[in-house]
Write a structure and sequence with these properties.
The chain is mainly α. It is built from 9 helices and no strands.
Amino acid sequence: MEHFESWKDLLNPEFYIKLGGFWLILFIIFAETGLFVGFFLPGDSLLFVSGIYAQELIAETFGSTGSEFLDTTILATCVAVAGIIGNEVGYWFGLKAGPALYKREDSTFFKKKYLFQAHDFFEKHGALAVIMARFLPIVRTFMPIVAGIVKMDKKEFLRDNIIGAFLWAFSLIFAGHYLNELFKTQFDIDLKKHLEMIIIIIVLITTLPVIIKFIFGKKESDENESPNI
């Protein structure tokens, strides 16, 4: 059993994998959109690292199938389902109580600015935003709420929710698993020993679009607000 030692552990996917294994991973994925408090937890990096540990996770939870492909598929499918359920809860919440969130004060686990960012993203990309948001930290946490607030068609949301969840889960988990295998066989490098560097790279890749949008979005906003002379 892994023990909490510092706040750095909260950003380390391996900590959660060793702490609670398969079930904690599913809960975190669900909580990120279903409970709206997971935006500060590792999402993309958690899935990638989970892929590296896929066989161990399935073996410890259900017993290995004897096939690394099937074990990885089971893990990715369960993660996708957890993500789908989380988004559906977020959509329902947005549908029922979402408008009140715009009047809610900021707190440790809730930042109104993230809600506005998700809303702008949705307005720009429409229904496709539900799929794209899966790959964007923070945005994916609030996107289902926004979809509920604007009363997106339930069937369309469910369709895009399923597509996005499976694309996200399978691409990252399979990438983690098979890239680890590739580096082991071709370069004799065990990615488990270089997780800190991997996490940093994934965080940079996944947050770059959000950072770019924030910088250029703010710039456009400032220009629009500037008085004409």
